[in-house]
Amino acid sequence: MLFKDGTQHIMKLALASRQDSPRLRFTSNGTFQISVFSDLHFAESATLDLKTQNVMSEVLTSESPQLVVLNGDLISGEAVNGSNPGQYLHEVVKPVVDKDLPWASTYGNHDSNVNLDPMLDIYNHEIKYRNSLTTSMLSSPNSGITNYYLPVYPHQGSDEAPALILWFFDSRGGHYATNRVRNDLSGARGDWVNTAVREWFTNQNANLTAKYGKVIPSLSFYHIPAHAMLRYQDDGVNRRTTPGINGEVVVSQGSGDTEYSGQDSQFMRALLDTPGLIATFSGHDHDNDWCFKWNGSIVDQNLTGNGLNMCYGRHTGYGGYGDALRGGRQILLNQEAMEKEIETWIRLEDNTTSAAVTLNATYGQDQYREVTVRSMRASNIASSHQGSVLLPFVVLWIFFQAFFHLKSL
């Protein structure tokens, strides 16, 4: 059976109380690292799921982060047809559980489909794990589920004030789970962070600032990119100042099943109006993995960037489209310097790195090496055919060895 052996062991760990969940802290050397896995797309086949788990395990072995973020499209809902769709979540988190690392999730458009309900089949299973920090501070059919924040505390000193806030937003999308739950909603879900979430975010951030008497640096995570990324791409992605893969047109919030009409405009404004917000991270577009600094204007929405960094992750799962090598984005923060700069790069499944940049005041002007797109398919072909390429030489060597041996008799 696909899930029988591994899942039974993992489920025993899931019985631990969430009250024992770890508190996030900077390390003793003042750093905090996050590994981001995007677009995992489990459930398309057992073979692909195993390959995805191997990617995650390789990346986590190489990087040893303090937190893992699963940034949407954990499961390909359209591939789920069985009577127990919740089983897939346990396969998704297995590599993270095996490393005993904490994680936090956002849900993506593929995490909701007619046979997959994100609350019943993902969230209700995920929160059983001791190391799962995923929660829901604002949840409704029209707001999604994964809207929450996590504090990260200094390594030493008082726990009264966090050093960093991590925001998570549900950009929704996909279709309502009409075969899983009974309600009046059917068809496509809006694929943007909605107004209620934006208001909650604004109010919560103001409350945190008032509570601690200062602005706390922050990052945010959501699956579907904001429209500002498309506007930047339209102006031309510079491969030297904005290194990374730029392999497809940005499909931003509000552009999936509807015509874009500014659905995420208020969310973008809220991001710009958040003091201390350093960078945002999204997935969704499998063939893009660049970062840009938003300084341009979206004239028709009266929005002007203020230097906010916006980044893609890296397509992690073997499910879903795309031929580029799989991997995950890494984010490294130094508690003393993070308000001025953070380091980020892509760790690939073959243990190499790509698109390493420093998000600082001059990002977007600094020159980097252009990224060469390395194909997963070509890599796999090279690996699988390496033996066949050498085979003729081996046969020839054996022939000559036999010939000279017979001649000497």
TrEMBL record:
Residues 34-286 form the Calcineurin-like phosphoesterase domain. GO terms for cellular component: cytoplasm. GO terms for molecular function: hydrolase activity, acting on ester bonds. InterPro entries: Calcineurin-like_PHP, Metallo-depent_PP-like. It comes from the Eukaryota. This is Calcineurin-like phosphoesterase domain-containing protein. It comes from Penicillium daleae.
